[in-house]
Design a protein that fits this description.
With about 475 residues, the chain is an alpha/beta fold. It is built from 18 helices and 13 strands. It has two domains: about 280 residues, Glycogen Phosphorylase B (Rossmann fold, 3-Layer(aba) Sandwich); about 180 residues, 3-Layer(aba) Sandwich (Rossmann fold). Helix content is about 40%, strand content about 15%. The strands form two sheets. The chain has a seven-stranded parallel β-sheet. Helix 9 links the parallel strand 6 and strand 7.
Length: about 475
C-alpha cells in the first residue's frame, strides 16, 4: 500500500483522519462528498461512510472509488430492510439503532488499525451522530445541506419562536429578525405552512437543531455573499461556516482540484451518452432542460399540464422523468414529440447544465439543483413542490432575480399556459435578459467563494488547520 493510501504525509506523519457520514439520499450524499474532496486537497484523509438501504444497493462502489483520490476511501454500512417498519418514525428509529452501532464499530476498528478517526462530519439530519462521536472521544462537525434562510426558519420553529400554524402578520417580524425578504405563507417550507400533512417529517427536519450548537463546527452548503443578510443576522445565534457551493472544481475555480469534473455518486443510472450526443446537435441556448430531482413526484394531471406547457413553448427540450413517473406522461407523448424533445429517466445534471445548448432550467428548486444552476449561470423556471423548495423559489425570483416562479392557484396547481409563458419569458423575453445579467454576477461570486482565499475556501482552510493543531 502506498504512503498516500495509508493517510501518511511527508516524513511518515499520519494525516488527520475525517469520517464523513452522509444521509443516504441522492441530494445529501454528493454535497458532503464534494466537501470531502476539498478536505483531501488540503492534506487530510477522509473515509466516506455511506449507510446502504434496500433503495440504493445498486450503487457501484468499486467504480466510484476508482474516480476518487487515494486518500478519500469509501466504506459502506448495510442496513437490512425490516418489513415491520410501517412509518417514517419506524424507519428513522431503526436506522439510528442499526447505524449508530455500526458507526461505533467502525471507529473502533480504525483505532485498532492505527488510523484513528480525528473528526466525524455528519449530515445534520442525523443529530444522534454527534453523541456517537463524543462517546468515542472524537470531535464532530454538523453538515447542513439546505440554505441558511431555510435553516433559520426551521430553527425558529424548533425553538418555539415561530409557532405553526403561522399567521401572515408574523411574517413581517420574521423577515426583520432573520434578514429575509417579505414573505407570504406559501413562501415558507411546506413542512411549516402545511404541517398537518407532514407532522412526522417536520419533527425529523427540525430535530437537527436539538444539539447542533454542541458540535465543534457547523458547516452549510452555501456561500456568504449569496445569503448575506441572513448570514449577518444569524451569526450571533449559531457558529455556522459556509463552505459552498459544493460543485466540482472544474466548473468553478478550476484551481484547487483541476481535473475534478465528477459530481459523485448516482443512485439512479444516468443516460449520459444519449444526453450528450443529443445536446451536441442543438444550437447554443436553444434547449429547455426539465428535471424535478430524485424524489419529487407529481400528480398525473399536473404532469400532463407540464408536458403540454413545455411543448407549447416550441423549444427543444431535455426532460428527466424517472422510471416510476413515466406512466404519468400523456399517451404517446415521447413518440409524438421526438422531433423536439428527448425524455430520459436520469442524466448527469452538472454536465447538462454546463452544456452550451441549455438555455433554461425548469426545476423543482431543490437546493442542490438551485445552487448548480446559479453557479453555472442557467436561468430558472421555478416549479417548487415541497419542503424547502418553496423558499428556494422565493429567493430565485425575488432576491437573486435569476428566474421566474410559476404561478399556482389556491390548491397549488399550475396551468400549461403558465408553464409556456414562463419558459418563453426566460428564453426570449425582456425579463430573461435581466435574469442572464444577474446570473453572470452570481456565477462570479460563487467562483470567488470557493477559489483560493475566498470565503468558503477560507472556512475550509481554517477547519483543516484547527484539526491539524488538535492532531
Amino acid at each position: 500500500m502506498e504512503k498516500g493510501e495509508r493517510g501518511e504525509g511527508e516524513g511518515g506523519r499520519r494525516k488527520p483522519h475525517v469520517l464523513a457520514f452522509p444521509f443516504p439520499f441522492q441530494g445529501h450524499i454528493n454535497p458532503l462528498l464534494q466537501f470531502s474532496k476539498r478536505l483531501v486537497s488540503k492534506g487530510l484523509q477522509v473515509t466516506f461512510v455511506i449507510p446502504f438501504t434496500d433503495s440504493n444497493l445498486d450503487l457501484d462502489i468499486d467504480q466510484a472509488q476508482r474516480r476518487l483520490p487515494p486518500t478519500l476511501r469509501v466504506h459502506t454500512i448495510t442496513i437490512n430492510p425490516d418489513d415491520e417498519l410501517k412509518s417514517a418514525d419506524d424507519f428513522f428509529n431503526h436506522f439510528e439503532k442499526v447505524v449508530s452501532l455500526k458507526l461505533k464499530e467502525f471507529i473502533h476498528a480504525q483505532e485498532a488499525l492505527g488510523n484513528p478517526v480525528s473528526c466525524v462530519v455528519y449530515d445534520s439530519i442525523m443529530p444522534w451522530a454527534l453523541e456517537v462521536a463524543r462517546d468515542q472521544g472524537v470531535v464532530a462537525a454538523s453538515f447542513f445541506t439546505q440554505s441558511n434562510a431555510v435553516n433559520a426558519i426551521y430553527y425558529r420553529v424548533h425553538e418555539g419562536l415561530l409557532r405553526v400554524p403561522v399567521k401572515q402578520e408574523e411574517l413581517a417580524v420574521l423577515g426583520l429578525r432573520l434578514g429575509l425578504p417579505p414573505l407570504e405563507i406559501s413562501d415558507l417550507p411546506s413542512l411549516v405552512y402545511d404541517f398537518h400533512s407532514y407532522p412526522s417529517s417536520l419533527r425529523h427536519v427540525i430535530s437537527r437543531f436539538s444539539n447542533f450548537k454542541k458540535a465543534d463546527w457547523v458547516f452549510d452548503n452555501t456561500f456568504d455573499t449569496l445569503e448575506e443578510q441572513v448570514v449577518s443576522r444569524m451569526a450571533s445565534q449559531w457558529p455556522i461556516k459556509n463552505i459552498g457551493p459544493t460543485i466540482p472544481s472544474t466548473y468553478l475555480d478550476n484551481n484547487i482540484l483541476k481535473a475534478d469534473q465528477d459530481y459523485g455518486f448516482s443512485l439512479l443510472k444516468p443516460q449520459a451518452d444519449t444526453c450528450s450526443k443529443w445536446l451536441d446537435s442543438k444550437e447554443t441556448g436553444s434547449v429547455v432542460y426539465v428535471s424535478f430531482g430524485s424524489l419529487a413526484t407529481m400528480k398525473e394531471d399536473q404532469m400532463e399540464d407540464l408536458a403540454w406547457g413545455i411543448t407549447m413553448s416550441n423549444n427543444h427540450f431535455l426532460w428527466v422523468v424517472r422510471q416510476e413517473e413515466l406512466n404519468k406522461l400523456p399517451i404517446n407523448f415521447i413518440q409524438d414529440t421526438a422531433d423536439k424533445g428527448l425524455v430520459v429517466t436520469w442524466c448527469p445534471q452538472l454536465q447538462v447544465l454546463a452544456h452550451r445548448a441549455v438555455g433554461c432550467f425548469v426545476t423543482h428548486c431543490g437546493w442542490n439543483s438551485t445552487l448548480k444552476a446559479l453557479s453555472l449561470g442557467v436561468p430558472m423556471v421555478a416549479v417548487p413542490q415541497r419542503t424547502d423548495q418553496t423558499t428556494n423559489a422565493k429567493f430565485v425570483m425575488d432576491v437573486w432575480e435569476v428566474g421566474i416562479r410559476v404561478k399556482v392557484d389556491a390548491k397549488g396547481f399550475f396551468t400549461r399556459q403558465e408553464i409556456d409563458e414562463c419558459i418563453r419569458e426566460v428564453m426570449d423575453g425582456e425579463r430573461g435578459l435581466g435574469i442572464k445579467k444577474n446570473l453572470a454576477k452570481w456565477k462570479k461570486l460563487a467562483m470567488q467563494a470557493v477559489d483560493e482565499g475566498g470565503s468558503s475556501d477560507n472556512n475550509i482552510q481554517q477547519f483543516v488547520e484547527q484539526l491539524v493543531l488538535r492532531h
